[in-house]
Amino acid sequence: MEVKKSLWVAEIACQLGLFPRSRNILKTIALGQMLSLCICGTAITSQYLTEKYKVNTPMLQSFINYCLLFLIYTVMLAFQSGSDNLLYILKRKWWKYILLGLADVEANYLIVRAYQYTTLTSVQLLDCFGIPVLMALSWFILYARYRVVHFIAVAVSLLGVGTMVGADILAERKNDSGSDVLIGDVLVLIGACLYAVSNVCEEYIVKKLSRQEFLGMVGLFGTIISGIQLLLVEYKDIANIDWDWKIALLFVAFALCMFCLYSFMPLVIKITSATSVNLGILTADLYSLFFGLFLFGYKFSGLYILSFTIIMLGFILYCSTSTRTAEPAESSVPPVTTIGIDNLGLKLEENLQETHSAVL
């Protein structure tokens, strides 16, 4: 009797899609934390370059990453045929990808540059402004419709960020503010908004077009834009670098971490959403803090563990419930069908029900 009851419960769970859904949530968590570790790698290498070797060249670091994207994904597009070919894409959408490349390049530059003017605490707090902006853009551009639980999940995750900032203050971490905190705060807010624009465009492209097209176009125009800006604003800083193998190795490590971040993020966004990914990578600062305990002598605080737990709780809560798409009937744009990992569970549920009916 107990065996029959267990089999019946398992059958019901399979029909409801609970097992695949749980696996997808765990998979999404793992992928999100992999992205966080990539961001952590860029933060650690940048901090080493700045503090130990007095090298502050954020545009050069970004330029190397865009060059890698160009050499791999843009060249890949050049050998594609039909509508996926590089020349075909440039003829039809070149000006759109120029704007996308400009938003992506300047978002990276402004956030890093803001550290020269304001404190680390301000950057951590104000950078979260990009999440509500991202949700608003997804609402109007991708027609994503959120449930109450999604707003609660975002609030919980931001509470975790606030806990992390409180841990910074109690641990008396060194916050080197520059000449004008207001300028730094404004740079962070602008950079966060540009990140949101870039992420929404990324979600649209990878779900309705292709991952290769997004990375190839960002690599092409990112290389051009960052190269021009590099010559305009950082040529003196680059000329003053006292190059050795350690500095070169840090540049290579930064570029590889950034390249992995750009390469894997579209894969995660395709099965979830840009908002979900941005919630998941809130833990990147915490990973940087944990590594900083050993590398830079940071003081440990139990609030770091609490902060990590709260952020992950909000992230899991967000992923546990699917969003829906409210595409206008008159729109010629194909609907987004993969926002939120629960859509995968719903699709599996429909398939299981059809199979079960056919068997009966």
Automatic annotation (TrEMBL):
The cross-references to PANTHER family, in alphabetical order and at most eight, read: DUF914-RELATED, SOLUTE CARRIER FAMILY 35 MEMBER F2
Subcellular location(s): the record lists: Membrane
GO MF terms held by the record:
transmembrane transporter activity
This chain belongs to which protein, by name? Solute carrier family 35 member F2
One GO cellular component from the entry? Answer: membrane
In which broad location class does this protein mainly occur, judging by the first location in its UniProt entry? membrane
* Matches recorded under SUPFAM superfamilies: Multidrug resistance efflux transporter EmrE
- Domain of life (superkingdom): Eukaryota
Q: Which Pfam families match?
A: SLC35F
**Membrane topology term:** Multi-pass membrane protein
Mark the transmembrane ranges: 29-50, 62-82, 124-144, 151-170, 182-202, 214-233, 245-265, 277-296, 302-319
**Alphabetical UniProt keywords:** Membrane, Transmembrane, Transmembrane helix, Transport
Name the job this protein performs: Putative solute transporter.
The organism's lineage is: Eukaryota, Metazoa, Chordata, Craniata, Vertebrata
**Membrane: is it a keyword of this entry?**
yes
**The organism of origin for this protein:** Rousettus aegyptiacus (Egyptian fruit bat)
| UniProt-listed InterPro entries | EmrE-like, SLC35_F1/F2/F6, SLC35F_Transporter
Q: Which family does it belong to?
A: Belongs to the SLC35F solute transporter family.
Keyword Transmembrane helix attached: yes
